[in-house]
Each structure stands twice: as structure tokens, then as C-alpha cells.
Amino acid sequence: MPEKAPALSVIMRTKNSAGVVEQALAALFSQEHRDFELLVVDSGSTDRTLEIVRAYPCRLIEIAARDYYPGAVLNRAIEATTGDLLVFQNSDAAPLSPRALGDLVGAFADPEVQAAFGRQLPRPEAHTWVRRDYEVSFPDAPCAPDWMPYALPFAAMRRSAWKEHPFYSEAWGSEDTEWGYWARRQGRRIAYVASAVVMHSHNYTLRQLYGRRFIEGEADAFIHADRLSAARMLWRFALAAARDVPYHLGCRDLPGLLRIPARRGVYHWAYYRGHKLGERRRRRGDKDASVGQSVVLDSYDR
Predict the structure, then answer these.
(1) Is the Cβ–Cβ distance between 265 and 233 less than 8 Å?
(2) 189-199 sheet: strands from edge to edge
(3) What proportions of the chain, in percent to the nearest 5, are helix, strand and coil?
(4) If pLDDT is split at 50, 70 and 90, which confidence band does 61 have?
(5) CB-based contacts of 94: which residues, under 8 Å, 6+ apart?
(6) Which of 45, 73, 116, 242 could join 49 via S-S bond, C-beta 3.0 to 4.6 A?
(7) Residue 155 dihedral angles phi and psi, to the nearest 5°
(8) Cβ(216)–Cβ(272) under 8 Å?
């Protein structure tokens, strides 16, 4: 008799994650909900990541770093799995409760729910501005903000929903955002599960922040098919900086307060540059997403 297929397929992407992946895997395999298969896709790790991953029951796909395009890689990974429900867990996202996975997939008891995502809490060492952003983005509330349609660090979806709309690959990043906005336009329900909590955050260097925001800007130009003016970019910078100031003062973080102009400047300038690239690519029908890939990958490699 053939072995029964698992109810869930968990997909985890890794690259040089040795400092965090063991925490993520240990938390996953400590979940009360244990009926899952794990597929790990590694894009060229050179540290102990693969050694750590192989200590856990999983299947492993290895690809070259320059072959890593998030949407295309996720689609390939999903095709290699069997579960009716697809679960996505970042290699640096650790569930904080043994019920987190069960709470996440419990949302699908409602047949109208096509996808779900959990709440993210910043790591203890997170910078003040990171903690503020996460408080706003992932509240302890029934719903996430309107501009946060979906987030893959800890998320799930029905395989049937993915088949209807696989992850896009027109731009290098924001594959989860694009999918979430597509689902919203189609009237599909995405549940935000605040009790499905993971620890996940990044203290980006300015170079890393530039790469991250560049590809988000490029992606948004495709997702929203809009144009971003310099004046609008400057307004967003001023508004974000103004919101940062009282939060940093309340936390008595003077060094962080002094870094607000540089950090928010890079944050919004990179997004603007990426968005302009996306606008040009859309106008020209350019299918090559390698520029955004180079910007973000180079920001980590240097």
C-alpha cells in the first residue's frame, strides 16, 4: 500500500543561515502539528547551513546563488511537494509556540480561506526602528494593515490557490505581496492569524537596506503599475522620519535617533531607484529581472 501523503508541505529557503536555521528547524519539529513533509531549497550556502539542515528529516534541493529568483524557486519547490496545504517558513523565522503551526493551518477550517499568514515579532536585538515597523505591520489584532496583504516568513496557502495563480517572476522580490494583492483583487480571503507567532527580523546594514528596498520598489512598479515621483518619495521620507522621532525618544534611543536621516534616506532613495527601474522595464516589456537580483545579492556579498 502506498504511503499516505502528508497533509502539509513545508518549504524553507536557505542561504548561509547557520546562525538561525537550527533555531527555526528545532521550533518546527517541536510543533504539536507533526503531519508534514519538509523541503529545503538552498541557494549556495558556504557556511554550516547544509550540515545543520541534513540533521533533520527533509528533502534538499541545491541551486546556485545566481539561479535564485524567489518566485520561480518557490514554484519549482511547490511542484516537488505533495501536500494539499503549502506552508512557508523562512530559515530565520522561529515559531514561538508549539501551537503556531496548528493555529496557522487551523484557519483553513473555513473553506473560504485560501491563504493565511502569521504574526512576526522582532528579535530581542532588533533596532528600535525595526521594532516600530513590526509593531505597525504585525499587530496583535484580528487583521493586518491594509497594505500588508500577505507575508511569507510564516504563511500557508491551498495548493489549489497556488495552481490558479503561481508566484510571479516579473521582478526579483515581493512575490508574497504580489500574490496577496492578486488574491484581494479576485475576492479571495486571506486570514491573518495573530496567534501563529514567529520571531523574525533583520538589523540591516545601510548597504543591505538599500538592496532590500531597491527590489521592493522595482516589484511595486509591476504590482501596482503606478509611477512614483521624486516629490512623493520625499514626502514619504519626511513622514516616516517624523514618526520615527517620537518612538525613538520614548525608547530613549539617542544613537538610533541620530541615525534616522541616513537610514530613512537610504530606505526611500533605494525604493525610488528600484521603482524607476521597474517603471522602465514595464514600459519596454523587459523580462530580465537580473538587475534587481544583482543589487540585492551584491548588498549581502560585500
Answers:
(1) no
(2) 59-62, 36-42, 8-14, 85-89, 154-158, 113-121, 189-199, 94-95
(3) 50, 15, 35
(4) very high
(5) 20, 23, 24, 26, 27, 198, 199, 200
(6) 45
(7) -155, 170
(8) no
- Residue entry with cell 546556485: 64
Is residue 77 a contact partner of residue 58, using CB atoms and an 8 Å limit? no
What are the phi and psi torsion angles at 116 (to 5°)?
-150, 155
- Burial of residue 151 (CB within 10 Å: 0-12, 13-18, 19+) is buried
pLDDT score of 300:
74
Q: Give the closest residue to 209 by CA, choosing from 267, 125, 256, 285.
A: 267
What residues does 156 pair with on adjacent strands?
A: 87, 116
The total number of residues shown for the chain amounts to 302
Straight-line distance from the first to the last Cα atom of the chain, in angstroms, rounded to the nearest whole number: 52
- Global pTM reads 0.94
Question: Distance between CA atoms of 128 and 125, rounded to whole angstroms?
Answer: 9
Higher-confidence residue of 7 and 1: namely 7
Count of Cβ atoms closer than 10 Å to residue 87 Cβ: 25
For residue 20, give every residue at least 6 positions away whose Cβ sits within 8 Å of its Cβ, in sequence order, or none: 91, 92, 94
Q: Specify the CATH architecture of the domain 8-199.
A: Alpha-Beta Complex (3.90)
CB atoms within 10 A of CB 239: 12
Full 3-state SS string of 91-157: CCCEECCCCHHHHHHHHHHCCCEEEEEEEEECCCCCCHHHHHHHHHHCCCCCCCCCCCCCCCCEEEE
Residue-range domain boundaries for the chain? 8-199, 206-301
Block residue for cell numbers 499568514: 117
**pLDDT at 120 > cutoff 50:** yes
What pLDDT shows up at residue 5?
Answer: 57
Question: CA-to-CA distance for 95 and 97, rounded, in angstroms?
Answer: 6
